[in-house]
Structure formats: structure tokens, C-alpha cells
């Protein structure tokens, strides 16, 4: 059981609403739901009844609420005392982002860091997964988000898995009927807008086609998601996007979406293993784990 589990439990109990609790905690709604679910699983009791009007404490939840508040008060006192006994964590952390900040819950992470470690200055660097991984290894970045299928066996980075990101094949809207009915064989024969070297999207598709013994008809290469969407909208060929990007493109009339939903990429947080004891990196990793509603797991 973590501090943030109790903090979320008390906030939801007092607000009686997940969304209001998330706003109060500066956390995402999925993270708040995950905290409550994780606490209920650990305790073995249902803490809330979900109703159309919001969250209502069960008898077990009411019995535990005051003890949770008391535990939080005790933990806060320990933290205050510890802060007085040691120097606060200070320094600069260069954090690599492989997607938009909002999708990586960066605002919530910043809120946690500001509250707990105001002496840590975060420098946000937007880049691609391969560049982030390389720069973490080279010490040019301290920590970063990457898709984990580009991490080789025997790597020297610590990896914290975060979530599986659904992916989707998209094509020009004029091909919508053909794409909707297509199987893997037909997709392989259509023109593809391909990806730059070591792109996680490339690895995922190559694996999907190669295990079926199918060659790929690559006609052009794009080096970022915006370019891929533009080329698809222009009728050049198929490509692969995050499913949320694919649905957004379809809603904008820029693309059609292949209906098969079996592909996903693992999103992870990485830093050099040898820097695991760095207090600044540890602080950021703990903030990410809290915001994403996950324990800090490494592999």
C-alpha cells in the first residue's frame, strides 16, 4: 500500500466523485480509478459503491476512512520531520517525451514534483523513442518515455512498463471499402508509407508481416506522425498510427481505419541502471509511477 493510495481514497470519499477528486489531486481520472481499484484489491474489500450520482462509501469504506486519515496525518508528519533532517532533493532532470505532454500525463507529473520536490527543475525534451533511448544511454538525457520494442536484450537501462498503447492501420479515405475488407495478404500488397530506421512502428509492422511470410510494398518514408498523416490524406498509401491518432484522423476526414484491433506498443520509462540511486531520477520515477497509478516496477 502506497501513500498515494490512501490520499486518493480520502479525496474520493470526501468529494464523492472521481472527477472532482482527480481535479483536487491534480491527477488524471484513469490514475485515480487505478489507485482506488488497487487499494480495494490489496485490502480485499469494496470501499465504494459506484452510483449514477457518484461514489458512495460502503460500510467497510466508512469503517476505514478515519484510520486512513490518521495514517495520512502520521505519514505527513514523518515527511515533514525527514525534510527537516535532510537536505531537499535539488537538481536538473532532462526528461525525454516521445509523444504529446498531455498524453504522457506530464502536467500531473509536474504537479507532483512541484508539491514534493520543488528544488528539482525538469527540462522537457520532445523527441523520438530511438533518440530518447540513445540519449539516455549517452547521458544526454536523464530519463525518458519510449516504446519498449526498440530496447535490445542485455540493455543497460532500467525499464518501468507503463501501459499498452493500441495501434491502428490507416489508409486514404478513397480506399475505405477496400481497407475495411482487407486481410493481411491484401494489406501487404497495397502501397505503404514507411518509417525511419529503428522506429517502433516499423518493428511492430515488420514483425506482423514477417511471421505471415508477407513482403511489404514500401513506396515512401516519413519521419514523424504528422508527415505520415499528411501522406495518407494525400492518397499515397497506408501507414500505422496510434489508435487515438487514427480515430482523430478518421473523424477529420483524412483517413480510414482498418478495423482489426490486435496491435499495441508497450510504453515505458527508462533511465541508466547505474543511476538508479540518483535522488533526482528516483524522484521523477516515483512521480511517474504515482501519476500512472502503478508501482515502480523495473525489468
Automatic annotation (TrEMBL):
HTH lysR-type domain: residues covered:
1-58
Keywords linked to the UniProt accession: DNA-binding, Transcription, Transcription regulation
Pfam families per the UniProt record, alphabetical: HTH_1, LysR_substrate
Matching InterPro entries, A to Z?
Answer: LysR_HTH_N, LysR_subst-bd, WH-like_DNA-bd_sf, WH_DNA-bd_sf
Gene3D superfamilies named among the record's database cross-references: 3.40.190.290, Winged helix-like DNA-binding domain superfamily/Winged helix DNA-binding domain
Q: Which GO molecular-function terms appear in the entry?
A: DNA-binding transcription factor activity; transcription cis-regulatory region binding
Its family remark reads: Belongs to the LysR transcriptional regulatory family.
- This one is known as LysR family transcriptional regulator
**UniProt organism field:** Solidesulfovibrio carbinolicus
Upper taxonomic classification of the species?
Bacteria, Pseudomonadati, Thermodesulfobacteriota, Desulfovibrionia, Desulfovibrionales
Amino acid at each position: 500500500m502506497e501513500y498515494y493510495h490512501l490520499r486518493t481514497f480520502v479525496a474520493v470519499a470526501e468529494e464523492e466523485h472521481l472527477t472532482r477528486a482527480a481535479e483536487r489531486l491534480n491527477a488524471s481520472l484513469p490514475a485515480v480509478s487505478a489507485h482506488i481499484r488497487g487499494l480495494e484489491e490489496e485490502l480485499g474489500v469494496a470501499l465504494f459503491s459506484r452510483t449514477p450520482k457518484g461514489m458512495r462509501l460502503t460500510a467497510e469504506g466508512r469503517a476505514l476512512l478515519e484510520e486512513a486519515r490518521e495514517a495520512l496525518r502520521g505519514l505527513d508528519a514523518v515527511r515533514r520531520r525527514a525534510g527537516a533532517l535532510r537536505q531537499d532533493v535539488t537538481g536538473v532532470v532532462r526528461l525525454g517525451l516521445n509523444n504529446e505532454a498531455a498524453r504522457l500525463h506530464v502536467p500531473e507529473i509536474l504537479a507532483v514534483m512541484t508539491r514534493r520536490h520543488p528544488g528539482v527543475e525538469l527540462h522537457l525534451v520532445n523527441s523520438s523513442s530511438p533518440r530518447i533511448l540513445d540519449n539516455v544511454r549517452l547521458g544526454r538525457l536523464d530519463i525518458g518515455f519510449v516504446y519498449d520494442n526498440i530496447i535490445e536484450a542485455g540493455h543497460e537501462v532500467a525499464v518501468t512498463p507503463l501501459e499498452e498503447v493500441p495501434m491502428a492501420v490507416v489508409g486514404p479515405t478513397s480506399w475505405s471499402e477496400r481497407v475495411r475488407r482487407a486481410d493481411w495478404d491484401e494489406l501487404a500488397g497495397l502501397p505503404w508509407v514507411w518509417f525511419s530506421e529503428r522506429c517502433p512502428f516499423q518493428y511492430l509492422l515488420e514483425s506482423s508481416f514477417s511471421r505471415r511470410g508477407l513482403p511489404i510494398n514500401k513506396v515512401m518514408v516519413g519521419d514523424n506522425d504528422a508527415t505520415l498523416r499528411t501522406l495518407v490524406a494525400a492518397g499515397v498509401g497506408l501507414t500505422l498510427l496510434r489508435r487515438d491518432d487514427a480515430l482523430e484522423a478518421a473523424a477529420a476526414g483524412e483517413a480510414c481505419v482498418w478495423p482489426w484491433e490486435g496491435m499495441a506498443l508497450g510504453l515505458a520509462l527508462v533511465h541508466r541502471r547505474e543511476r538508479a540511486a540518483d535522488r533526482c531520477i528516483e524522484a521523477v520515477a516515483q512521480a511517474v509511477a504515482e501519476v500512472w497509478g502503478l508501482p515502480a516496477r523495473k525489468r
